[in-house]
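Hi everyone, sorry if this is the wrong subforum. Our group has a chain we'd like a structural model of before ordering constructs, and none of us has done structure prediction before. Sequence below.
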Amino acid sequence: VVIAVDARDEIDEVRDSLQQLLVLCGLALLLSLLTIRWAVRRGMGLLDDLLQALRQVSGGQLTTRLREAGLPEARQLAEHFNRMTASLEQARADNTQLTQALLAVQEQERTQLAQTLHDDLGQYLAGIRAQLCLLRMVADQPTMVAQTTRALELDCERLQQGFRALVHDLYPLA
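Answer:
Right subforum, don't worry. Here is the predicted structure as tokens:
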């Protein structure tokens, strides 16, 4: 019995083992890459949803909300995003309410100003105009001119006080 070692046989055996090992490593690598791709796509889907929601919010749609489902991180992100949009929506509602209140106050001030100008100051101006017409008619009567002049001075003083009160009401010290 002759036992002879054939080197080619050993090399073929090592080559077969190496090929099996490489195929196994290749399959493991392929499986790893597919798993990574799946995980990244899942994360990218979340980021895509977030980006789309942010675009909607920047476009003025503050009622946009994210689904609170999936991974804990995704739920936490959605929860914070939803709280943010709810806060923005509340701030917008508050701003709208404040704007309406401001417009109502401005309209009330305009009405009050117009009423003051018409009722108080307008009467004094009409009286001064009438007294000036009277002065023209009684220019040759010195006592009447003196009385009318004093009345004009008094009306001008009242008119000036009215303007001061109006300005004070517009810009109170407090």
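For your construct planning: The two ends are 122 Å apart (CA to CA). Helices lie at 7-58, 72-137, 142-170.
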